[in-house]
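Internal tracking record. Fields below are filled automatically when a chain is submitted to the structure queue. Please do not edit lines marked as system-generated. If the sequence contains nonstandard residues, flag them in the REMARKS field before resubmitting.
Queue: standard
Priority: normal
Entity type: single polypeptide chain
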Amino acid sequence: MELTSQVYLLAYNTDRHKLTCNGYLGYVLRAAALTELLQLGALSDADGKAKPTSVRVTDPMLADVLRDLADAPKLKSWAHWVHRAQTPMFRAVQQRLADARLISTERYRMLGLFPATRVKVHQHRLISELRSTVSRTLSASRAHPQEAALTALAAIGEIRIAVSRAQAREHKQRIEQLTDQAGPALPALRKVIRDHHAATSGGG
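SYSTEM-GENERATED OUTPUT FOLLOWS
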């Protein structure tokens, strides 16, 4: 399963039957897509900027992200690309999971006024397995690149249902190791989320 899909499912609270970190989950998904492109060799780091390589990807969603980077007139920072088009990314990942019949969505009006979407995950076992992977990776000394990236994304992306604040404090050094292993999209995600919090709390 794609890293973006794993991140989306990981953010789902199976007890409350709703997504967590809605306000910035799109940023975490963008960082996941960039990290996956980096792992595939389709992106490289050029002095803190994301640089497309000659490697092509077959995944349509990743190909769209890569095309966006390639069409830019000049190289831009990883944070720029994490921040860009977070809402379309969120919708694309959600639609992919719906097409795969892993989730279903229902439009409704919150308080009878505000349009919203209700999400239902059909296989809670998948989420349990992803949480177990994250928990195991936090405690392990070595990790598969995708598992390392998923765990780092959960921690830096503040997916508290997967990595609690207490776990983040306890495994702070391990999380930094995983972040380094996952690549430059992760520190960029940390900056984007910090800016997001500052803006939404009235500090920006």
